[in-house]
Amino acid sequence: MYKLDQPPLLFEASRPGRSTAILPPCDVPVVPLDSLIPAEHLQKSAVPLPELSELDVVRHYTNLSSLNMSIDGNFYPLGSCTMKYNPKRNERLAALPGLGAQHPYQDDSTLQGMLAILHELQNDLAEIAGLDAVSLQPAAGAQGELTALFVAAAYFRDQEPDRKRTQVLIPDSAHGTNPASAHLAGFETVTVKSDSRGLVDIEDFKSKLSDDVAVFMITNPNTVGLFDPQIGEIAGLLHERGALLYLDGANMNAILGVVRPGDMGVDLMHYNPHKTFSGPHGGGGPGAGPIAVRAKLAPYLPSPMVGRREDGTYFLDEDRPLSIGRVRAFFGNTGVLFRAYCYIRSQGPDGLKRVAQHAVLNANYLLSLVRDVYPVPCGPRCMHEFVASCRTLAKDRGIRAMDVGKRLIDYNFHAPTVYFPLIVSEALMIEPTETESRDTLEAFAAALRAIAAEDADSLHDAPFTTPVSRLDEVKAAKTPVLRWTP
Amino acid sequence: MAYIANTPDDVRVMLGAIGLDSLDQLFDMIPPEYRLDRDLRIPPALTEFDLTRRVGALLARNEGADRRVCFLGAGSYDHFIPAVVDSLASRGEFYTAYTPYQAEASQGTLQATFEYQTLMTQLTGMDVSNASLYDGGSAVTEAVLMALATNRRAGRVVVAGTVHPEYRKILETYLTHLDSEVVTVPPQNGGVDPSAFAAAITPDTAAVVIQHPNFFGRLEDVAALVDAAHAHGATAIVSVDPISLGVLRRPDAYGADVVVAEGQGLGNPMSFGGPYLGILACRQDYLRKLPGRIVGQTADRNGKRSWVLTLQTREQHIRREKATSNICTNQGLLALRSSIYLAAMGPRGLREAAELSTRKAHYAAEALAKVDGLSLAFPGPFFKEFAIRCDKDPRAVLEKVGAAGFHGGVGLGRWYPELADHILVAVTEKRTKDEIDGLADAYRDALAAS
Ligand SMILES: Cc1ncc(COP(=O)(O)O)c(C=O)c1O
Predict the structure, then answer these.
(1) Which residue of A6, A106, A248, A343 is the best one to mutate when testing the B interface, meaning the one whose CB has the most B CBs within 10 A?
(2) Are A200 and A284 found together in one domain?
(3) Would the CB atoms of B349 and A111 count as touching at under 8 Å?
């Protein structure tokens, strides 16, 4: 990130009459438009878009890009987001017309390469999950959650036509998408407490488990960075009641090839390939949210799925009468899935396991370098991430998690996730990922330690070296200005 | 080791600092009985060189719009993408950043998103736009959920049968689990009859969904359909083709309350169906129930204009089960691409794309209608896409047209059994007169041989 000033808005830079020649002249007879489309449907004046030269556009966006921190430029230890390196080799392959120029309704016979890749990916994701069937359709993790809950609801409608399971249990440490998805899927959400270790409070869980429960949504490793060893017991208790165990797979990076969700009793789960499998996050998206399920749930997965015929050819299987339907148009976020495929192929079985090992190694090493200054309430060890607390710093010195996050930017590091999960006060959720070097981790730890010794009053004004200083978020929400007006 | 920087020496030092002897001990929190005691059964690792060759070879087996002249549409279109879009959007500072949670370190993404929101309001005539949704199909559903929440009605939703069948399927899939009823008004002659539509709308109807141009490419009597919704106080949701807005009236002119669109055509590759861009813009009244991220303008400590994610109390990370939507990751990079596209095209370029598409589509319709065995399916005006009726089995005909080097159209039978002999043909500004004439010849030969 450079410390440039922001460029003017596109609209302010617009000059009447400027344009870029892009399209050719018309080579079919040019008849008056209103002889083709009745005048009542036609726009009388041009759309009020900005008018710019090509160089205007190039400078504008190049300068804007320089105002961002990014993985390519900075350590970006945003907890829960798995900001690992996004391999350039995948980008180059994804830019080939063999991907980009494929229309979703081409005949299957012209898509054999594409479908082979997607079919292999379905298989790989099933194997990594230890589950039986995979749908690649959901567009992001949150949509994967929702889709899986639709699948669960459809399964119960078939299994238990005479009654309705109305509840989904969710730990208080869960990501916000979990309860939001459960609500959208028509369930009532019931919160399960965490115990003092940061794990599921098993007694609270038992007290809330009833025949009304359809699904328990667990995140494991969970959002404080711990593996919950009670997961097998939890799965057993759920299964005794006929309920299902869902895994929020946002943290799969910690356990790739080490332990498989299906082997510890999980019935259905989503992946976040834009985290675990190195899909670039695009400044907000796109992601993808493939889901993996046990065989008994497979008939309910959305359509289509990729099938393979006896003769080795591939097809889109739409003939799935029990399917819940669909959650997005066309096949899925193929571009993101494709990058996940390239990543998995680049790693192989050993590589994936090494990813988990080094993600956990890096997190534990970083934890060991900072925990005397930033206590880790759910320590002393962690999986791929840990949640430090600024509670004592805030109490003793008035330094809050937000201040630390903002000040880190001046040290050229992106801030960790702050104030999540909700069960740790003044949370700094730090996930270094396996692609960072020991040197980077040490430099980051040094910055964190230095900040804790800085003057608290001045920290409230951080950052100091960014294109803008600390923003007034209250003003933005109170008097919303959501678009430019002349 | 792919993408891992730790050397054996680093590993030793780091394990020592943690107080462990082996990498394996890092996982001692995991009960041994669950641990995988074998390797994952996936193919072995490939180097960059091998990956590039192997995956490149697989991709080369596809025969898309790069290898056959593409007349496929039905919601995904082969529009031209200016080089600036790819060049700028592939800057690592954009595509390797996360959602702009830390505003001071993300002003690039934030300003670009604020500009995207503005461009969407300019394009649609609506008051506000969010920062993107998954795709045009899920945007329809999110718009309906927003209308249901805003209107606080029992929740009958009336949908034109000319809305993309997959969009309707998504809506059905979502609403099955909520207390809402979806009523579909079947198409007549490729359009929705305004009086049949009005008759389906009841006082407890919360929202109606219209697509214009519709799934068959035809223009609906959209003003009448919107009026019918308003007669009962229902929200009029209109799904549009953003390129069409280069020539067609802006949705505000006919009273739309919410405009949704598939933004793929605005500078995004077809990419076998995704990632795409869900556009959702609406009148101010819906703001509090708008799903997804929104960027707002504010000031920093020095009063300098700047941008930040705002109105987050609608969102899942604050409101959890009471959020307006569960969306978190959106389609930011696609929104960026579409903004760059519109900035590069400008008002004239967008108009050119729309006019060229219109003229070429009409030329193609005329050329195909002259082919023995083909006829235009529906009367009435259309934009860049139209349905033809084929006297012989469309599958066989399309296969022959394909062998001649054309993706000749999308058979409609899979969604509309009564239209099993119909083919949907889309024509963008990229298609030349020669290609269109070639398509007509290919159909002529295919029909003659069938
Ligand atoms: C733990 C957890 N669950 C779910 C999600 C939602 O995934 P997505 O943003 O892909 O919708 C996230 C990502 O933000 C997450 O961190």
Answers:
(1) A106
(2) yes
(3) no
Q: For the segment B136-160, what is each residue's pLDDT rounded down to a tens digit? A: 999 999 999 999 999 877 689 999 9
Q: Determine the distance separating the centroid of ligand 1 and the alpha carbon of A177, expressed in angstroms.
A: 7
What is the rounded distance in angstroms from the CA atom of residue A472 to the CA atom of residue B296? Answer: 11
Cβ-Cβ contacts under 8 Å, A361 against chain B: 6, 11, 14-15, 18, 23, 26
In terms of domains, do B68 and B124 share one?
A: no
Q: Per-residue confidence at B178, pLDDT binned at 50, 70, 90?
A: confident
Crossing angle between the packed helical segments B433-449 and B394-403, to the nearest 10 degrees? 130
The answer to whether the complex's ipTM is over 0.90 is yes
Q: Considering only CA atoms, which of A353, A361, A366 is closest in space to residue B1?
A: A353
pLDDT digits (tens, 9 = 90+) for A103-140: 999 999 999 999 999 999 999 999 999 999 999 999 99
Atom 5 of ligand 1, nearest CA residue: A141
Q: What is the CATH number of the domain that holds B384?
A: 3.90.1150.10
Of B30, B91, B249, which has the smallest distance from its Cβ to A42's Cβ? Answer: B249
**Per-residue model confidence as pLDDT tens digits over B311-341:** 998 888 888 888 889 999 999 999 999 999 9
Number of domains in chain A: 3
Residue B371: inside a domain: yes
Q: How far is the CA of A175 from the centre of ligand 1 (A)?
A: 7
B444 shares a domain with B327: no
B369, part of any domain: yes
pLDDT tens-digit map of B40-70: 999 999 999 999 999 999 999 999 999 999 9
**Same domain, yes or no, for B156 and B297?**
yes
Query: With contact defined as beta carbons under 8 Å apart, do A413 and A430 qualify?
Result: no
Is B41 within a domain? Answer: no
Q: How many domains does chain B have?
A: 2
Q: How confident is the model at residue B1 (pLDDT cuts 50, 70, 90)?
A: low
Whole-number pLDDT of residue B416: 97
B167 lies in the same domain as B244: yes
Q: Which of A21, A37, A67 is the last residue of a domain?
A: A67
Q: What is the pTM of this model?
A: 0.98
Segments forming the whole domain that contains residue B61: 51-78+346-449
Smallest CA–CA distance, residue A149 to chain B, in Å, is 10
Among A10, A67, A91, the residue with its CB nearest the CB of B343 is A10
Question: Pocket around ligand 1: residues whose beta carbon is below 6 Å from it?
Answer: A 80, 140-142, 175, 177, 219, 223, 248, 250, 272, 287, 289; B 328-329
- Residue where one domain finishes, among candidates B284, B307, B342: B342
Chain A touched by B312 (CB under 8 Å)? yes
**Higher-confidence residue: B2 or B249?**
B249
Contact B353 A23 (CB under 8 A): yes
Question: Do residues B363 and B296 both lie within one domain?
Answer: no
Residues in chain B: 450
